[in-house]
Every structure is written in C-alpha cells, then in structure tokens.
Specification:
Blueprint (H helix, E strand, L loop, with lengths): L3 E9 L4 H18 L3 E9 L2 E11 L2 H8 L2 H9 L4 E10 L12
Antiparallel strand pairs: 1-3, 1-4, 2-3
Helix pairs in contact: 1-3
Length: 106
Amino acid sequence: MEGFGLVVRFVIRPGHAEAFDALVAATLEGIRESEPGTLVYASHTLAEDPSLRVFYELYRNRAAFEAHEQQPHTLHFLNTRSEHVESFTVDFLSLMDGKGTTGSTS
C-alpha cells in the first residue's frame, strides 16, 4: 500500500491563534479545490493547550505530497506561517493500513 503522511505540531505565538487558523482555513480551501492526491489534511486543536495546533496529512504517495508543496496556497502558507508560529516539528509517516485510506480493506 502506498501512502505518505506526516504529523506537524505547531506552537502558536501568543495572540496569533485566530490569524493562524484563518491562514489554515484559506490553505484548506485550495487543497480541497485542487489536490486530488491529498487524501486527508486535518488541523486539530488540543483542549489542554490552546496554543498548539496539530496537523495530520495523508497523501496518495510521495509524488502527491511533492505536488502539494508546489501549490500556490501551500507556498503562501509556508511563506506566512512564521509570523504566527513560535516553533514546529514534523514527523514523516509511512502508511501501513487503516480505515478510510486508499487501498485499505479494513
């Protein structure tokens, strides 16, 4: 099974949560409209720490991820996020199996 994913954890600057969330919403519009290879792109908040955002992203394959990185809405996000983010970490994932993923039987 192919599938390329990542989890990104953002620490938002004080007072920037609303602006960051608006940036994410605009980015998601572009993803929904023009990225068939992006299977899941989900932004999460953490109840215990409102300064954190966690993204889960799942792409059909590595090529779909690379195409995502070149989209205008993604480039805008990447070039703008530092205004709102203190730090972030990225963990890359390889899909083994799952419900709701391309090619899964579970």
